Amino acid sequence: MAIAEYTKAALDAVSATIGNDQPVYMINLVRYRADADYGGKTDLPPCSGKEAYFGRYAPAFREVAKGEDFSVFWVGNVRGMLAAPDGEAWDNVVIVRYASFAALRRILESPKYEAEAAPHRRAALADWRFVATTASPPFAG
């Protein structure tokens, strides 16, 4: 089963909702493969999905994203699901702050991202959710 992927239509919809110029925090819910799966299209040595994500994808992403204003805000280990469908499980929550949604789009839509970073993400992850959020006024209630 293929993992969920973002689409141009989804990027357009989010862009229309939040605009391109305000900071955005992207929440990544990630579940790793036991073994990274490149579909036989790599000469890299075998590794776990988690090793591929942090040891290959993250450095490749940083290289592709040079010049863009972003930072890793949070990486947390999921310890349990208190309210979720039966069987839903995640390994990590990764939150990345971008100065703007436009900055994120420039990264994701670049041929360099598709060639150098995305293959490691796809090999690493068994499942993934990618959620765009913006700051909200404090709850007043």
Distance between the termini: 43 Å
User: How are helices and strands ordered from N to C?
Assistant: HEHEEHHHE
Shape, per Cα inertia axes: globular
- Radius of gyration of CA atoms, rounded to a whole number: 16 Å
Task: Provide the helix percentage.
Answer: 25-40%
Uncertain regions: pLDDT < 50 for 5+ in a row? none
Largest sheet: 4 strands, antiparallel
Question: Structural class of the secondary structure composition?
Answer: alpha+beta
DSSP strand (E) fraction?
A: 15-25%
What does this structure look like?
By secondary structure, this protein is an alpha+beta fold. The chain has a domain at 9-36 and 67-79 and 89-134: Alpha-Beta Plaits (2-Layer Sandwich), CATH 3.30.70. The chain is built from five helices and four strands. It has helices spanning 8-18, 49-64, 101-108, 111-116, 118-124, and strands at residues 24-32, 70-77, 92-98, 125-133. The protein has a four-stranded antiparallel β-sheet with strand order 2-3-1-4.
List keywords for this structure.
141 residues, 4 strands, 23% strand, globular
What's this model, at a glance?
By secondary structure, the protein is α+β, with helices and mostly antiparallel strands. The protein is built from 5 helices and 4 strands.
How does the SSE layout of this entry go?
Blueprint: H1 8-18, E1 24-32, H2 49-64, E2 70-77, E3 92-98, H3 101-108, H4 111-116, H5 118-124, E4 125-133
Antiparallel strand pairs: 1-3, 1-4, 2-3
Helix pairs in contact: 2-5
